[in-house]
Every structure is written in C-alpha cells, then in structure tokens.
Amino acid sequence: MEQLLHYVWKHKIFPLMPLQTTSGQPVEVIDPGLPNTDAGPDFFNAKLKINGTLWVGNVELHTQASDWFRHGHNRDTVYDNVILHVVGESDCEVYYANGGIVPQLLLHCPDNVRRCYDELRQTEIYPPCYSILASLPKLTVHSWLSALQVERFEQKAQAIAARLERCNNHWEDVFFITLARNLGFGLNGDAFEAWAAHLPFRAVDKHRDSLFQVEAFFLGQAGLLEEDWQEDCYYRELQKEFHYLQRKFELSAPVSGDRWRFLRLRPGNFPHVRLAQLAWLYHKEQSLFSRVMAAETAEDIKKIISSRTSPYWETHFTFKKSSPHQEKRLGENALNLILINTVIPFLYAYGMHRADERLCDRATCFLEALKAENNHVTRLWSGAGLPVYTAADSQALLQLQKEYCDRKDCLRCRFGYEYLRGKK
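The structure assignment produced for this chain is given below.
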C-alpha cells in the first residue's frame, strides 16, 4: 500500500543491494525530501544522484506506476519538477506533460516491516505497540510526548483562532465561550459553546453589576426559563426579568432547552448549576481574561476562576425540586481541568499572538506542574508500561490517542516507528 511505501522512502529503509532505476541507472538517495501533506508531489526538495548526476527536486510515490496516469500527472505541469517516481509495482513507463520519460525506481517494502505493520493494524490489543513500550529509552518517550504536547497546543490555538475570527477578535468573549464549553465536561460541551456564542455580551455587560440580572440573561438565553413553573418564586422573578431584558435589548430567541443533557450526570454538573456558577464568575470578574493572563502562578489563577453561586442554588440543582443545603463551588478537580483545557491553551495562544515567549513558557510550566488527568486513556497507557506523571504527559497521550491510535496511523507515530524498526 502507498502509505507503507511513503514510510519506507521517508526513513530510507532500502534493500542492501544498490538502488537503480527501471532503466538500469544507479540511484543514490542523499536526502529523501520533506513530506508534503497538501496537493502536489509527495516529497519536496529531495537530493538524489542518478547515474552520477546530482538532482534536486520532488519525488512522487505510487503503489503502481500506472497510478501516475490515473491521477492525471501526465497532464499536470506541477509534476514536471519530479526527479524520481518511486513505485511498489512497475507496470509501465510514465511521462511528463511535455512527453519526456520520468526516471522510475522500483522499491520493495522489507518483509519484516510489512509483517510488523500488519501486526499493528490487525491486533485487537490496545495499544497495539504495548509490547515495546516498557523497553523504550526514556529520551525516546520524552521527546515524542513533548512533540505531541506541542502538537496539541497548536491544535487548541487554531480552535481559539477560529473562535476569535467569529467574535471579531474579542479575547474576553472567546475566553468565556471556551470556559463555558469546558464546564460542560464533554456531555454538554457543545450545548454550552452554542449557548455562550449566542450570548449578547455587550447587553449583559450593561447589567453586570447585578448577579440576579446576569442569571436572568444566562438562564433565559439557555432556554431554561421557558416553562410555566409558577410554584417557584425565584423562577418567576427570573422569568419576568428575562422577558424585560428581551424587550429592552431585542434579544434573539434563546437556544433550545432540549439541547441540555441530564442523563448520567451528577447533580453538581447539571446545566442550571454550571450556568449559575458562570453567572457568578461573570458578575465577579469584570476582566476575567486579562486577570488570568497576568497571573503568575496556577494557584493565583485558581483563586480568580474559583466560582460559587447565588444563595438560591445552594438549596437547588434545578428549579423543580429543593435539595439539602450545599455551597456549590468548583472543586479542585474541576479547577485543574479548567486550567488544562482553557487557561493553559489560552496562555499559549495569546503568547503566540503577542510573540511573548514568557506566556508560552508559563503554559508549559503550568502543564508540567499539574498532576496527570485520570481517565481511560491515561489508565490504558499506564497499564501498558508507559509512565504518566503530569498533565503534560496526559495531554500528550490524549493527542496520541486522537490523532494517531484512533486513526491507526502508526506510520506517523514514533512508537510505531520503534516497533517497526526494533522487531525482527
């Protein structure tokens, strides 16, 4: 398959015999080139000697030589700078758009590499590379996890940039939207993001000094004040206030209350409670994003984002039923997750935006100082022999799971490379 051929070429896993083109000209690979993930040839800026002459250009790979014609490269001048066509099966000669013959190399994948790759793809044991993990050098593990951590930072920074574009580059709004999403803790994450993106922030700001009015905005725009629930006085007051605010600011229709999920949620995670905590935080902190970015320590940030609720919610999880008195603060675990999934990515993204390395370094330091998350992914890798100590480790492993293991993309994974290289 072509993906495996890419791997063999990229890592120069060549047979011991001298390489030569299908026409018999000797080939020496000085540099296989840089992999191209966009349209165009597969490898850029390769350096080769063909029949003693140094060539610098691009390399295209195909399972069968005839794929060159099936993909229309013989009619595309973009491929006129291909200096070598590497194939797994040479079933024909291929030509440039001007009619010239493209030098072609028949490259076989070593049997042991193909066998190990098939093992990785077909095993039902997870992770498939478990048998080598405990024996890997610490430097190999550390370097790959560090690269995965940076990769995850960059992905989250891209998501933040996309939200910024939708919010006219208003960092405070985007920080609150992201915070709201992460307070959904998975099950209600999409609903919280849709709700927060729907909030009329400038209208809410005019009444920010009143926690009651902020709650009316938040719960009303969440579609949770739509019922005729006359038995609850606080509900009626919030509903009346929200209807007033709707008319005053000509608000668009609330999001549907049907979006919120309650099944298999602990009461402390019910949307009503989380919205009440967000309302309290929005009321308390007038410049939440700015304060968080200026904080020097993780403990300082926790003090800023630590939230509670208005007195009503100390005896309620929803409007329909009272509960024993309980002050509903964000717990230590929730605060750590907010640090990991909201604050730290924003430190990195804002540092990149401002070209401020201190913020990026602070993001990394905070992540390395926090304990690893305890979830099925971290437990799985830890059980396979990979140490997981800090949140930097757990975030790297979540990236590994999402972008490599779930896609069975072992050929781009450093652990997969070690498996193919080390097993005989």
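Interim note for the steering committee: The first strand starts at residue 19 and ends at 20. The chain has a mean pLDDT of 93.
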